Amino acid sequence: MDFFSSVSRLFFDLGILSWDVLLTLSNLVRRSRRIRHVTPEGHPGYGGYWPEYRPPKETDSRCSCPALNAMANHGKATARITFDLEELDLHSGIEHDASLLCLNAAFQPDQSIKHVPFIEELLAAATGKDKDGNDLITTKDLSRMLGKRRAVARAVTRSSRTASSTRSLGARITVFGGRVDDLRSFLLHERIPESWESRIRQPYGLTLMTFNKTILGVEFGVCEQDWAEAAREAVERHTAPT
User: Fold this and answer.
1) Yes or no: is domain 34-239 CATH 1.10.489.10?
2) Which of 5, 99, 207, 233: CA 20 to 30 A from 198?
3) Which of 112, 115, 89 is nearest to 101 (CA)?
C-alpha cells in the first residue's frame, strides 16, 4: 500500500510541476492583463473596489500573517475560516524567528503584534524606483534586511529556524510589486490600499516557478556576516543589566 501511495504521489507532483511549467511558458507569450482589469468582474477588488475596512476589535483573533489579517479586516476571511487565526501561529510554522515584521517569540509571545521599527526600517531600505518614480523594495533590499534579522536572531536567541521568512515575505513583496506606499498600508495597518489591484498582471497569475525564482534570488543574496557588528550590539543590549 505504501508503495502505491508513493508512486501515486510522485505522479501527482509531476503533474502539478508540468502544469506549472506550462502556465509559466504561457505567461511569457500571452498578453498581460490591462490595468484595472487584473481582478475578474464580479469579484472583490474589481476596478480597485474592496469590501469596507474595519479595524479589529479586542475580541477579534489575528495572527502573524498580515495577508490573512488584511482579509479579515476587509471581511474576506471570516466567511471561510472557522477557527481562530492565532491558532496558525505555531512557532517556526508561518510564525518564525528573524521576522522582518515582528520581534522573536521569546520577546513578544503575541505574534499578531507587529514591531513598527522593523517595518519602518524595511520600508526605508528600499533602493529601487519604478518608471513613475515610486519607491520599490528590490530582492537585494530583502536579502540585506533578512541577513540582518537572521544574524541578530541567531546571536540573541540562538535560533536557526528562520527559512520560512523568505517564502512568506517574498509572496507579499511580489504581489505588491515592491511598492513601498502600498506595502506601508498593508504591513503597518493590515489594510488593502485604496483602489489597489495586484501587480501580477500575467494572464495565469503567479506560478510556482516564477515565485521560487524570486525566493531563490532573495535567499542566495542573504549574507549574515555583513551584520556581525549589529549582532554583537544586540547581544550586548540584551545581556546588559537593567
Assistant:
1) yes
2) 99
3) 115
Name the E strands within the chain. 128-129, 135-136
User: 179: which strand partners?
Assistant: 136
Contact 185, 53 (CB under 8 A): no
CA–centroid distance for 119 within its chain: 12
- Cα atoms found within 13 Å of the Cα of residue 112, Cβ hemisphere only: 16
Residue-range domain boundaries for the chain: 1-30, 34-239
Q: What are phi and psi of 68, to 5 degrees?
A: -65, -40
C-alpha–C-alpha distance, residues 136 and 127, integer Å? 7
pLDDT in tens, 99-122: 888 888 778 888 788 899 999 999
pTM for the full model? 0.82
